[in-house]
Amino acid sequence: MHSPLRDQPDFASSVIVTAQQMQAVEATIFAEGMPVAALMEKVAGKVARWIMQHFPRDRFPLVGCIVGPGHNGGDALVVARELHHRGYQMLIWYPFAQVKELTAQHKAYLEYLGVRFTQASEELNFCDLLIDGGFGLGLTRPLTGELATGIRTLNTGTVPVVSIDLPSGLESNTGEVLGVAVQATHTLCLGLWKLGLLQDRAQPWVGQCHLIPFDVPLTALQPALQDQPPPCCLTAAAAIARLPLPRSPIAHKYTAGHALLIAGSRQYAGAALLAAQGALASGVGMLTLVVPESLRLMVVSQLPEALVIGATETAQGAIAALPDDWEWDRYDVVACGPGLTIDAASVVKAVLQSDRPLVLDADGLNSLAQEDDPKGRLAARTAPTLLTPHVGEFRRLFPQPWQAAASPSLAASQAAIAAHSTLILKGAISAIAHADGQLWFNPDSSAALARGGSGDVLTGLVTGLAAQLAQTAVTDTMLLDAAIAAVWWHAQTGRAIAAQQTELGCPASELAKQLPRVLAEQLQTANATAPVW
Ligand SMILES: NC(=O)C1=CN([C@@H]2O[C@H](COP(=O)(O)OP(=O)(O)OC[C@H]3O[C@@H](n4cnc5c(N)ncnc54)[C@H](O)[C@@H]3O)[C@@H](O)[C@H]2O)[C@@H](O)CC1
Ligand SMILES: [K+]
C-alpha cells in the first residue's frame, strides 16, 4: 500500500489541510519557540520575492494593497515594506480601525517610511498590480459594508491581483464565497495547501495557485493530522511511481494485462472508439472490446489492435446481452459504460455481479443509479471497483452525501467509503477518493479537457493501466494507483496540447493520440530533475 507519508519525497508540498489543521500546525510551531513576527517576516519575504520576480518594478511600478485586520493584513504590510524599499510605489487601502497588534506595528512603520494610505478603495483601480491581504485563514463570516463594496468594484477592473494565502472572502475549507470574494489572478498559498483552494467552485476566484512553502516540520504536521491520511495533491513523482514501468524485458502480450471494454451503442459509437484509444495508449497487452453487433466491422476497421466482439443488440442499437458462455476470468480488468445508453442496463447488472476488478463510467453509472441500493450493490462486490463520474453522474448516484457534505470532494470521499470503492470525481480539479479515506486532488489540469469524449479516453486509460498493474497483484489499492497515474497523465496531456494548440485545440481523439508522447516528455523531465545521490 502506498502511504503518502512514506513515498513522497516532499510530503509537506503536497499535503492539503483544513484551516483548523493549519492553525494547529502554527500553534505548535509558535509554542516550540518560533516567534510569530519571525514567521511573518520569513513568509512575507518569500511572497515579496515572488512578486518582484513575476511583476518587475519597471512594468508594475504602482502597487496597491488591500490590508485586513489580522495577520493576513500583517503579511501584506511586510510585503509592502519590502517592495517600497525596492523602489515600488505603494498605496495601502486600510479600511479597519481595530487590528491585531503585529499588524498595527507594521502599519505604524510604513507610515514612518512615508508610504501612502488611503480610505478610498477606488484609488486602487489605477494601480498596476494589487496585493490582497484582506483575510486569510481567519475569515469567520461574510464580508460586508465598505469592504464588500470596495472588493466588488475592484473585481470589475483588469488589474492583476495577487492574493496572499487565500482570496479574501473565500472560506478556506469549502472554497465557498462568503458574501463577496476577491477575484485573484494569482493566489500564493502559504505553508501548506488549503482544502478550499482545491475545490472547483473556488477556481474562478483563485486564478493560478502557487505554494509558498515555509519549512513546516513534519513533527508539527503529524499531530495536526491526528493519524488520518490527509488529502494530497497529485504530483508527477506520485503518478510516475504508479505507472507499470519499467516493463519486464520478457513480457509478452498476456503478461501485460488483458482489458475488457464494454462500450458503445448505435447512438454513441464514438465513445467506444475513444475509450479503446485511451486503453491502447496505456500500453495494455490485450484489449477486447464488446460493442453492439452492428458496430463491429466499423470498430475493427478503426482499431485493428483490439479484439472486437459484436453483441446482440436492442431495437435501439444498445448492447442487449453478453455472448453465451461468457468467461469473465479471461480479463484482468473490465470497464463498462462509455456510450452504452441505459438500454444496456442488464449488461451493467451482469458486470456488477462479476468477480473482476471493474471500472464503471457514464451509462454504467446511470444504470446503477436506477437500482434500489447502488451503494449496497457496490459494497457487495467481491473485486475492487472504480467509479468515474462527473458531478451530474455523481449526484444521481449518491444524492445523500452530495446534499449533506460541505464540498463535492468530501461527498466523494464519503461515497467511496460507503460503497467500498475508489472514485474519480471528474472536474476542473478532479478528486480521487479511496475506500480507506485517502483523497487526492489533481490541481495541474487544463480547461482544454472540457470536451466530449475526453472522459471516455480517461476511462480507457485507467482501465489499461489497471490491467497492467493487476499482473503484480490484484489489491485494494490497484485501482487507486491506476486512477492516480491516469488522471495525472490525462491532465498533463491536455496541458501539453493546450500549450501548443491553445485550450481550444484538444479534441478527444487528439488527446488519445498524444498520450504516449507527453508521457515520454514527462518522464524525461522527471529524470532530468531527479536528485543525484
Ligand atoms: N499564523 C501563522 O503561522 C502565519 C500566518 N500568516 C498569515 O496569517 C493569516 C491568518 O491570520 P489571522 O488568524 O489573523 O486571520 P486573518 O488575517 O485572516 O483575519 C482574521 C481577523 O479578521 C476578523 N474577521 C474575520 N472575518 C471577518 C469579516 N468578515 N469582516 C471583518 N473582520 C473579520 C477576525 O475577527 C480577525 O481579527 C494567514 O492566512 C496568513 O496570511 C502568515 O503570517 C504566515 C504565518
Ligand atoms: K488574502
Automatic annotation (TrEMBL):
Annotated residues that bind K(+) are located at: 72, 132, 168
Function noted in UniProt:
Bifunctional enzyme that catalyzes the epimerization of the S- and R-forms of NAD(P)HX and the dehydration of the S-form of NAD(P)HX at the expense of ADP, which is converted to AMP. This allows the repair of both epimers of NAD(P)HX, a damaged form of NAD(P)H that is a result of enzymatic or heat-dependent hydration. Catalyzes the dehydration of the S-form of NAD(P)HX at the expense of ADP, which is converted to AMP. Together with NAD(P)HX epimerase, which catalyzes the epimerization of the S- and R-forms, the enzyme allows the repair of both epimers of NAD(P)HX, a damaged form of NAD(P)H that is a result of enzymatic or heat-dependent hydration.
Named cofactor requirement(s):
Mg(2+); K(+)
> Keywords in UniProt for this one?
ATP-binding, Isomerase, Lyase, Metal-binding, Multifunctional enzyme, NAD, NADP, Nucleotide-binding, Potassium
GO BP annotation list: metabolite repair; nicotinamide nucleotide metabolic process
- EC identifiers of the protein: 4.2.1.136, 5.1.99.6
**Cofactor notes:** Binds 1 potassium ion per subunit.
Protein family:
In the N-terminal section; belongs to the NnrE/AIBP family.
Describe, as the record does, how this protein assembles with itself and its partners: Homotetramer.
Where do the YjeF C-terminal domain residues begin and end? 236-522
Keyword NADP attributed: yes
Q: Kindly list the positions annotated as binding (6S)-NADPHX.
A: 71-75, 136-142, 165, 271, 339, 390, 456
Sequence positions that bind AMP: 426-430, 455
InterPro entries assigned to the protein according to its UniProt record, in alphabetical order: Carbohydrate_kinase_pred_CS, CARKD, Nnr, Ribokinase-like, YjeF_N_dom, YjeF_N_dom_sf
Catalytic activity entry: (6S)-NADHX + ADP = AMP + phosphate + NADH + H(+); (6R)-NADPHX = (6S)-NADPHX; (6R)-NADHX = (6S)-NADHX; (6S)-NADPHX + ADP = AMP + phosphate + NADPH + H(+)
In terms of PANTHER family, this protein maps to: ATP-DEPENDENT (S)-NAD(P)H-HYDRATE DEHYDRATASE, ATP-DEPENDENT (S)-NAD(P)H-HYDRATE DEHYDRATASE FAMILY MEMBER
| Domain named YjeF N-terminal: residues | 22-222
Could you give a GO molecular-function term held by this entry?
metal ion binding
This one is known as Bifunctional NAD(P)H-hydrate repair enzyme
